[in-house]
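Supplementary notes (optional reading)

For those who missed the lab, this is the record we used. Protein: F-box domain-containing protein. Length: 1292 residues.
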Amino acid sequence: MFDFYSSFFSRFYALCHFATLLGFCDSLADPFNNRIILKLNLSHMEKQSGDLFGRWCQRLKFDSEDHKSKHHRFSEIVLRSLLSHEAPVLESLKLVVRDETEALDVGIWIGVAFAHNLRKLVLDLHNEKDVLARVPSVVWSCSNKLETLKLRNSILLEFPSRVSFSSLRKLDLEYVEFKDEASISKLFSGCTSLQELFVDRQSNIDVKTFTIAVPSLQRLTVVDDFPGDGKGGYVINCPCLKYLSIKGFEWIEFCRIENLPELVEAKILGVSHENILVSLTSVKSLSLHLSPFKEIKFPIFHQLVSLELFTGNGWNLLPLMLDSSPNLRILKFVDPGWYNKGGYPVGCEWSQPICVPECLLFHLEKFVWTRYEWQREDEKEVALYFLNNARRLKKAILTTKPIEIEELKKLEKRREMLKQLASEVKSPNSCQLVFEYETFTCNKIGGKNFRGRDIVNEDRISELPEELLLQILSSVPTVDVRATSALSKRWRSLWKMVPKLKFNYERHESKHHSFSEIVCRTLLSHKAPELESLELVVRDAEAEPFDVGIWMGIAFAHNVRELVFDIRGEEPDTYSSVLWSCNNKLETLKFKNSMILEFPCEVCFKSLRKLHLDNVELEDEESASNLFSGCTSLEDLVVNRKSNSDVKSFTVAVPSLQRLTIDDDSESGQGVGGYVINAPSLKYLFLKGFCNYEFCLIEDLPELVEARIMDVSYVDDENILASLASVKRLSLHILPFHLKHPPTGVMFHQLVSLELFIQHGWNLVELMLDISPNLQTLKLVYAWNWDRSDSPIGCEWSQPECVPECLLFHLETFVWTYYKWKQEDNIEVALYILNNARRLKKATLTTKPIESHRVKKLEKRREMLKKLASEVKSPSSCELVFECEMSTCNKIGGKILRGRDIVNEDRISELPDDLLLQILSSVPTEDVIATSALSKRWRSVWKMVPKLTFNYERLKRERHRFPEIVCRTLLSHKAPELESLHLVARVNSEALDVGTWMRTTFARPVRELVLDLRNQRKVPVSLTSVLWRCSNKLDTLKLKNSIILEFPSWVCFSSLRKLHLEYVEFKDEASVSNLFSGCTSLQDLFVDRRNYYMDVGTFRIAVPSLQRLTIRILSCYSGRRETRYVINAPSLKCLSIKGSEWIKSCIFHELVSLELFTGQGWNLLGLMLDSSPKLQILKLTDPSMYTKKDCSVERGWRRSQPKSVPECLLFHLETFVWTRYEWQLKDEKEVALYILNNARRLKKATLSTKSVWSYELKKLEKRREMLKQLANEVKSPSSCQLVFEYDTVPFE
């Protein structure tokens, strides 16, 4: 690799004065007051920025994940961009490489970047195979202006001699390794100006003693969390250090820190070496996370004024630090939240100091405790000790953990406990005691806050510079770009300067103008001096050669750089070369679909670098020759063909070509014609198809690096292989050819990576192993649909007489995808390679998925893989991996196992019963029962699972009927208590004995029951009260769908707290009354009904203990009488009503939060405002299922408006939220103004409108004006915060 870097440095140093075609953009605000973050991917910058400022972009970022291309390797993209860069100084370069093959070119990239006076370099190399990329010191010896260097992941640094980083100020080393300790010393000794160092290590295999000796260093961060062998450590010698952060160090032997006289701030997290504190005596701000369980001699921190301690593993560190910090002013306690405080180690409990520390008596001014555990007595004692003894304390802040808003009792208890703590505090009167605590809320509305009448944002996007606006508009279709001219005067002519135009006949349909007229007018109106890109998608009826000639003439007059011409139609038209020969600045040309290209004479495309011919035809062979001969600078050629009727012999003769892709799926070749390829500079070759051709002649390719040959047959395979002799990476998918011996004289000496598709026999494997002496990576891939009977005779596996040289000396990685573990030839091939590859480091065999319920097949595969592993004689350093899939989870679950420990032991069976039952509780019951076939250990485990779920849809294929399965399972179940039972059953097809189920279920305590009976015939099942007699421990009951409840007498649900009734009917009104009167502890009730139910005339809800009530009435047209609803719930705290204007309400004295679904009138709103005197939060939601224009007049707001202002508006309402506010409707505006102008205590009002399409410019402007008008009419107090939230939907 060292020679590879050195040989290319001199070649690229002289080429570093060209410009890049890359750019980027930051975040901005759009003209519709929504915050848009525009992130332009670097892989598309060439298309989006061009010459606006891309050539002078000073910050570049390349990520191989974002630069995937069929035509260019990532290395080529990076290199071309760097070589074409013109900025005199390159501020920043970030390289993220995820392919080990691309890492070979890192040295070239860095050399080119250093020639541009690079200031900041970020190099991130990812390698899934854990193979480190060695980066020698010569790579870093090319620049003396580098100020920031960040190296990450799979990098091995080697510095045999001292380097010179004279200007380096910041260095980050994340998960990189060093060759030896001398490399570390020579690196740091060469950084004479280094001020900031960050080190994150995950192993100490590379060096045992990591020495950091940098006299100029001011900031140092070291993270070492890797569980090592307890040997080695760190030596830190930085006399000028001002900031030190250390994390981990639990698995090292020592950490020696020289004196740090200038240290100001230090953070020591998770460190078990107490002697580190001796070196920190000069620190002023200290954060500690230590676990000293024994008494140690602490130094005195005379200069320490701020201390942060992490609690969680004991209190013995706290008294020591207080005694050692006489001048402490600020003390912070932080609970990291991951410790179990059930019991501290012996000696770590809180013990009050004998004497009050000096810092508490004379200096401590601020005390902060984050995540204070108000329920723990020891923490309360600690808090009281500080608050009562800190005589100079000015402010104390205690922050508790969040609590769910539904846990009302816990919230109340926390409030009482904090009140009690405050009453016991004897701090001075000048001390400010603050309790900060959070409450989790489920529905949080985002958006920006606006105070008073500052409602609408200014049009900030129009204030952006023109260059940036043009870059944004370049990524938008032209039809939308032209529409921006209606925004304002600023935008009237801006679209005419956009450097990229896109026309698509599907988007440009007009009654008044044809597509051709639209294109011509737009191009003639265009004023940009240079057109970067023009894309035309045309229907064949509108693509007359005369019109196309006009378009091309105008485009070439604007010096177009990229042209995409796509004609959609059935019959292709012929286009002469005169249309395309008018421009010598064209760099990219793409022809697609229904076209016939005619080039009777040689064309002149001097600057053309990329050419795509996608399903187009050429007039004759002469046209093909004239086209390619005129492309003197062509580098990338893509040819997709479906027929060879136009040209029999397709000749590609381009001396400058570097990348060639040919995909030919023609089925009309009939063994006639073929391809001739003459491209001596070619580096990448992709061939696919060629199934019906006579020949494929490829001239010598001396510079070829990568080749992919797929589905090629019926041509001279020997010729193809002979032409690829110089390739380094090769992928072959060739149909069977009967070669008993390799082609004469063909040897792949430079081939290091080989991928073979082996579904048609083994002769190709044997051949390629023999003629690839330096092969390092071998990949075998099976096709799923291959039948062994398709293999030709003579293609069976036969072991070579001599072991190939590549196996003996070079092969390091072996991968087999979809290994067929049942076939003998597969086992033989795998054993042959594994036993003869002496340098093998990693072998991965992936098998096909198996259905999870096929237990026997899974077990057989496991045994076969065990047997294979036992026969492997590979070296101990080889890592053998089996990756097995089960189709139910679609995830490779194979764990990496070293040596011969291939198959995992059954560790899950060793888990305790409690944990197994908890796991099985989240699995459907039919799958839980299936585990009984695994082993004896699992035979009876399922019978103790506390949660059961039955669904008839999942049990359709079982041989027993659904009722039998449920009964058998319930009778076999042995758990003393059933936490949950879910039953989803079909009524019309099977006779259900629900009574048997209930009696069997309630034979033991049941906590939760969900019964869902589905019936397509709408004949409900009647459930009488006798079924519920034994359910006095039921906590949650949910009944759904086809059920009729009959309660002739009072039932007893003494422990029921939650009840759901979804589409359930009652026998009569007495059944409703008897049900609710028996729910003496009910707190949460959900009722979902249809308004045409005729079961009861009055639905009365009388539950004194009820706190949360949700009622949903589905409105369906019917001529039947409607049910009246009466609510008597004096303890109700939360009420949600949807579609129920038939409710006869009571007075809700305790109601503080109300949510109403609008859509069918306003009489319910007026009624609820009058009936809720203490209401604090009001939410209106539009479900968007009603047409509000059809609401009757008598349901309008003016008829429903209260006669006097409700008490809740005058004295209590603080929050008002309206979701999907219809700003166009007059009645909704009246409602909003009524609430906003009469709510005197209102603190915040949020109105969220419906989305509007981005192209509806008039509607967007009208919405803005309407909201402004509404804001001007609001007379709410100045303290009210008014927020408008609205979305603009982009049109794609």
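If you only remember one thing from this example: Residues 855-871 form the longest helix (17 residues).
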